[in-house]
Amino acid sequence: MQWRGRRQSSNIQDRRGGGGGMIRPAGFGGVGLLIVVLIGMFFGVDLTPLMTGGGPEVTREAPSGPNQIDDAQEEFVSVILAENEDVWNALFQQSSLEYAEPQLALFTGATSSACGFAQSAMGPFYCPNDQTVFLDMDFFRVMESQLGSRGDFAKAYVIAHEVGHHVQDELGLLAQVNAQRSRMGERQSNELSVRTELQADCYAGVWANSVRDRLQLTEDDIRSALDTAARIGDDALQQASQGRVVPDSFTHGTSEQRQAWFHRGFKTGDPDQCDTFSGRI
User: Fold this and answer.
1) Local structure of 119: helix, strand or coil
2) Can you tell me the distance from the alpha carbon of 144 to that of 28, in angstroms, rounded to the nearest whole number?
3) With contact defined as beta carbons under 8 Å apart, do 144 and 114 qualify?
4) Taking the CB of the first residue and of the last residue of the chain, which one, N or C, has fewer CB atoms within 10 A?
5) Residues 66, 69, 74, 76: is their CA dihedral positive or negative?
């Protein structure tokens, strides 16, 4: 994957603040923290009290205003976001639609969002209320050390997945899903959540198809994304964390489903092929 030297997005907010990071409680080491982050991210449970002894620690946010790209991590995220902007602007234009580009906020430890308090334990997420993707860069280290993910494209897949949720928001799908889930029982709500997440995986595949030539993606890059998709399947994470699998509690899809829908988007390059809401998944 060749991403250096490409256009960088102007929609980055760097809230990482100076010299800090999240304050960790005594007796809770780095490995334990990473496991908590993983479980919190993939099961939708706020486990921050386990890390802080009852309440979140807040990292001071950087001043608002024009952002300057000042490190390699931010440059990577900015380039990947710009590549997402180019792809989805073009695809929306082909359908005579207007695409409003999302913001992406980098933070360390905790920050505020229009969807509530954002914390590292939540993992990367998209907030439709302010059309912003939130990302603590420590999550990429979690991917490498706890999930065994490798390469830059696995990280790009995570960003593209979250932008996929913004695409759903732009198309009015998220509002419809949230309205339906509010009227459902837990099991049906979880199933709808799975379909939503798998569509975002498919949209990430569509994006990968569109950038494979200009980013010089290799077969190994695609395998790294598929491998990451497999490692973050609900069944794989549940088996690793609790030794058993509870399908009714799935919220993101199985390893096989996540791989299949990403591959479908990548193979076709057509967002219309990402209809996870009709038929079996």
Assistant:
1) strand
2) 20
3) no
4) C
5) positive
Contact yes or no for 4/77 (Cβ under 8 A): no
Q: Going by C-beta distance under 8 Å and a sequence separation of 6 or more, which residues neighbour residue 87?
A: 206, 207, 210, 211
Burial 167-204 (b: 16+ CB within 10 A, else e): bbbbeeebeebeeebeeeeeeebbbbbbbbbbbbbbbb
Residues 6+ apart with CB under 8 A from 42: 123, 232, 234, 237, 252
Assess whether pLDDT exceeds 70 at residue 54.
Answer: no
Rounded mean pLDDT, 252-277: 96
Could you tell me the pLDDT band of residue 67, with boundaries at 50, 70 and 90? low
Helix (H) or strand (E) holding 170: helix 152-170
pTM for the model: 0.83
- pLDDT above 90: percentage of residues in the chain: 64
Q: Which residues contact 268 (CB under 8 A, 6 or more apart)?
A: 206, 209
Tell me the pLDDT tens digit for each residue of 25-47: 333 333 344 444 444 444 343 33
- Rounded-to-10 torsion of CA 151, 153, 156, 157: -110
Q: What percent of the chain has pLDDT over 70?
A: 81
Token pair, residue 158, equals: 């995570």
Q: Of 129, 101, 126, 14, give the one whose Cα is nearest residue 60.
A: 14
Residue keyed to tokens 């709500």: 189
Tokens of 114: 């229009």
Q: What long-range pairs does 114-121 form, CB within 8 A, spacing at least 24?
A: 117/56, 119/46, 119/48, 119/56, 120/22, 120/37, 120/48, 121/36, 121/37, 121/40, 121/41, 121/46, 121/47, 121/48, 121/51
Choose among 56, 32, 271, 276: nearest CA to 167.
Answer: 271
Question: Looking at the predicted structure, is the pLDDT value of residue 63 above 80?
Answer: no
Neighbours of 214 (CB within 10 A): 12
